[in-house]
Amino acid sequence: MKRKRLGSAEKNKKAPERPSLTDFISKMPDDVLVMILSRMPIKDAAVTGSLSTRWRFVWRGVTRLNFNGIKSSARDKYISQVYGVISSYNHPRVHEFRIHFKFDSSYSKDIDEWIQFALNKKVEKLKMTLMRRVPSKHYDFRLPLSNAMAVEMLFLKVIFLRGVNLNEQTLSTILKNSPHLVKFCMYDSYIFTRIHVGGQEINLKHFKLVGCFGFESISLYGFDLVSFTYSGDEIELRLTDLPKLKELDIGEVSVGFENNVFSQISSCALYLQVLVLDMWSAKGLDVNAIIKLPNVKKLMLVMGAEEDDCLLEYTSLAQACPSLETFSISLHWCSPMKRRRKVRRVAAPNVHQHLRVLEIIGYYGRISDLELAVYAIDNSAALKKIVIDPCCHASEVDFTREDFLKKEQAARSSAKRQLTPLLPPGVELAIV
Fold first, then answer.
1. Which has the minimum average pLDDT: 24-38, 152-166, 215-229, 245-259?
2. In terms of C-beta distances under 8 Å and separation of at least 24 residues, what long-range contacts does 77-82 make, across chains too?
3. Contact (Cβ atoms closer than 8 angstroms) between residue 194 and residue 214
4. Which pairs count as long-range contacts for 409-418, CB under 8 Å and 24+ apart, including other chains?
5. Do residues 350 and 379 touch, judged by C-beta distance below 8 A?
6. Per residue in 219-251, pLDDT tens?
7. Which residue, of 39, 111, 144, 404, has the greatest Cβ tally within 10 A?
């Protein structure tokens, strides 16, 4: 077939002009443009002010000021960008203010000014990720203890600190003068010898301390705390008169079975609905010390599992939860050892009347892995789903990505081969 030739008139005919993408976006209402810019790092959003007169002031309506410098090594440039934005920012409120860069205490003056700016703008979420590894050089988080500052903290709802030091007086001031503060998180930070928080004036709902050090005890009492997470050095833990506490996440390293972790959480045992226990060594459990947890619906056990030792004794923790609906087991292994032995079973028929989901993370196909799955199959009246995640938590430095992928694929094959023949009717096997 011959291609039709275009006549001269057709050749000269112009295609209809399309409006450029920039023009199309520029015609949108300001609130839509602000929504778009709020998804960008604030330094990039501010640059749009140079596009045209239409864009000059739009970025100032962005209320999430995220100064993410994780990919930048130019500290002076980063500081200049922060000051450049806050000096020309005239919106009355800031919803979220985030500093993310490698700063130490030598930059305290700048950081103090940025925090002051955020508080003056009635910030709701304050996040500081400074990422320094030397605690003695961490930035010390501090607040002026004036009445004006107390007023400025009326709007704080969330505080997130990483690589930041904090003293007891500052923590107390923040908690007592921030009536809407519901979440306080600290990571990799140095604080003080003890945390003693309580009283009806405290409105904190979620408290998280991970990788922090410097203190020996935590005492929380007499307020409506909903969730508490602690992971770090071994401490003395006291939880009293916390009737709203529903979620608790602690570890053996943190409290230690030798210190009877169950006696330390017994005062809130009636209220708990979610319990996470990190038992890295997976040894030393005193079954007789386990307390009843009548309302726990989700139990997660995190255990080290380098060898193929039987882990069935830890199902005693699940048996202490008569309302259990989800039983999650996370197995951390390096180079797992497989042994040839018979599968052991626990004879406790229908001990779990409400257990619907079993999740095993780090399933490798060892007998000890299989035993945990068999336990749930044998002893659950309402089991609906078994989730197998072969995620490899190996820490060997000589493991390549290909090594990880091969081990995980082998684990998937083992899980399918071992568990498919054992599934009761109506129980789904999901291998991720």
1. 24-38
2. 79/107, 79/110, 81/43, 82/110, 82/114
3. no
4. 410/365, 411/363, 411/364, 411/365, 412/388, 413/365, 414/363, 414/364, 414/365, 415/363, 415/365, 415/388, 415/390, 418/365, 418/370, 418/373
5. yes
6. 999 999 999 999 887 788 889 999 999 999 987
7. 111
Q: Which amino acid is at 396?
A: E
pTM: 0.82
Are 201 and 221 within 8 A, CB to CB? no
Distance CA 48, CA 277 (A): 48
Beta bridge partners of 431: 388
User: What is the C-alpha separation between 46 and 139, in angstroms, rounded?
Assistant: 27
Q: What is the pLDDT of residues 110-159, one digit of tens each?
A: 999 999 999 999 999 999 999 766 777 889 988 764 555 555 688 999 99
The ranges assigned to domains in the chain are 297-432
Query: Using CA atoms, how far apart are residues 34 and 379, in angstroms rounded to an integer?
Result: 55
In one-letter notation, the amino acid at residue 367 is I
CA torsion angle for 223, 227, 232, 234 (degrees, to 10)?
A: 60
Q: How many CA atoms lie within 13 A of 47 on its CB side?
A: 6
Residue-wise pLDDT for 87-120, tens only, equals 888 888 888 999 999 898 999 999 999 999 999 9
CA 138 from chain center: how many Å? Answer: 22
As a whole number of angstroms, the distance between CA 206 and CA 182 comes to: 6
